[in-house]
Amino acid sequence: MNDSFKLDQQLCFEVYKASSNFAKMYARILEPFNLTFSQYLVLVVLWEEDHLFMKDIGERLGLGTGTLNPIINRMIENNYLTKQQSTTDKRAFVISLTELAKINHTPIERGIVDKLTSFNFADVNPIIIMNNLKKLNAFFGEMDL
To answer: How high is the pLDDT of residue 102?
Structure first.
């Protein structure tokens, strides 16, 4: 068997493992806030720009309505978001941050930064990894997958 087809030589497997490990790390950080990793990503979008249409949040995260709807509904139940029908389009909904989401912004970010800085990534340059992943994702975005 060709060595390049072994599991430990698969780029996709290393990306998968890294993604899984990031999700686990974030889950531990977010647990005291009663948030999941997916819910955190919704918050990040809304911390950048509040009062967005649900479809715009989905586009930014690459999530369909069927996936995003239960995430947002749970966040509404937990008092992180509000959902109001658009005044211009009765089929669209505007999603907004609550005071709880705004108050928890800094403690959540602090928890993430503290955890990331506690690791000693001596031989890992996160900026290079981020740039390479952005290039990879841009390449996939141009492909007809």
So the answer is: 98
Residues 95 and 52 sit within 8 Å (Cβ to Cβ): yes
CATH classification of the domain holding 43: 1.10.10.10
Q: How far apart are CA 64 and CA 74, in angstroms?
A: 16
Domains in the chain, number: 1
Kindly indicate the confidence band of residue 122, based on its pLDDT and cuts at 50, 70 and 90. Answer: low
Is 37 part of any domain? yes
pLDDT digits (tens, 9 = 90+) for 53-74: 999 999 999 999 999 999 999 9
Asked, for residue 35, whether it belongs to a domain, the answer is yes
Q: Which is nearest to 94 in space by CA: 61, 36, 49?
A: 49
Higher pLDDT, 116 or 105: 105
Alpha-carbon distance of 60 to 53, in angstroms, equals 11
Q: Specify the 3-state DSSP secondary structure of 26.
A: helix
Within-domain flag for 6:
no
Q: What are the tokens at 52?
A: 């967005």
Measuring CA to CA, how many Å separate 69 from each of 46, 53, 58, 85?
15, 12, 9, 14
Q: From residue 83, give the alpha-carbon distance in Å to each of 27, 108, 110.
A: 25, 22, 27
Q: pTM of this prediction? A: 0.84
Token couple for 21: 């490990």
